[in-house]
Design brief:
Blueprint: E1 6-11, E2 14-19, H1 30-41, E3 48-53, H2 75-94, E4 100-104, E5 108-109, H3 111-117, E6 121-125, E7 129-131, H4 145-164, E8 168-169, H5 170-176, E9 181-183, H6 188-200, H7 204-217, H8 222-237, H9 240-251
Parallel strand pairs: 2-3, 3-4, 4-6, 5-7, 6-9
Antiparallel strand pairs: 1-2, 7-8
Helix pairs in contact: 1-2, 7-8
Length: about 260
């Protein structure tokens, strides 16, 4: 499939998705999220996904005007775009069986902030920032932001981001524990690619189960977590990667995982 709003590249076992509307600071029309959803539906051997933005922004937020939704129907257009395009892709990302790395190279606002935070690891440049600007235009956070932020940084800081609508730059995001790492702009992509390659070479079947377990643990109770861990351990323990991991440990060599 030929995409109009994103670029995709397979580098070994890493699928890189680049948001590609630099003239609009990668503002995301519904089509962009539909294309992201299609790309992750067709991983074709990829064992990690890396998401970044072309140009000087990661994603400046939703661009409903690209299809006229904002001018036709107001809030009804936004509701339709969220329920039909943005939210289904966010759910797909949360359920991927492989890890996700986001390289945040510039502003990540609105739905762009949500997209970045959907990653398991966020590597962010020092000058990049997150922004929940909805309060400034009389709207509310979307793309799962209210769910993610409260769990990532707690109620007080999530409230600060949403109700004050101020920028959170890379260093503060790292200090808050909102991201994995803040680095200089010059090494951002290199750091993100190295991390993605490391994850892709790991036991990705087990990593996928870990992703699932972490997501469910946020809403489940302790007893349910114990049972889920036991079930996931049975699945992981029967995998070829577990056999390879045990053999490499005994033989004192580096394991070669296949993701199965």
């Amino acid at each position: 499939m030929t995409y109009e709003t994103i670029l995709t590249a397979n580098d070994g076992e890493v699928l890189t998705i680049t948001l590609n509307r630099p003239e609009r600071l990668n503002a995301a029309p519904p089509q962009m999220f539909e294309e992201i959803g299609h790309a992750v539906d067709n991983l074709v051997g990829a064992r990690c996904v890396l998401i970044t933005g072309e140009g000087r922004a990661f994603c400046s937020g939703a661009d409903l005007a690209a299809r006229g939704e904002r001018s036709v129907g107001g809030g009804e257009g936004a509701f339709a775009a969220l329920t039909e395009s943005y939210n289904p892709t966010m759910l797909k990302l949360s359920r991927l069986p492989v890890p996700i790395v986001a390289a945040v190279n510039g502003p990540a606002a609105g739905i762009g902030c949500s997209l970045a935070l959907a990653a398991d690891f966020v590597v962010m440049s020092e000058s990049a920032y997150f922004l929940q600007a909805f309060v400034n235009i009389g709207l509310v956070p979307d793309g799962g932001a209210s769910w993610m932020l409260a769990r990532l940084v707690g109620k007080a800081r999530a409230t600060e981001m949403m109700l004050l609508g101020e920028r959170v730059h890379g260093p503060k995001a790292a200090e808050w524990g909102l991201i994995y790492r803040c680095v200089h702009e010059a090494v951002l992509l290199e750091e993100a690619r190295m991390l993605a390659a490391r994850l892709a070479s790991g036991p990705t079947l087990a990593i996928g189960l870990m992703r699932q377990g972490l997501a469910e643990a946020l809403d489940g109770d302790y007893a349910a977590a114990l049972q889920r861990e036991a079930e996931n351990q049975r699945l992981a323990g029967n995998s070829a990667d577990a056999l390879e991991g045990g053999a490499s440990f005994l033989m004192k060599r580096k394991p070669v995982f296949r993701g199965c």
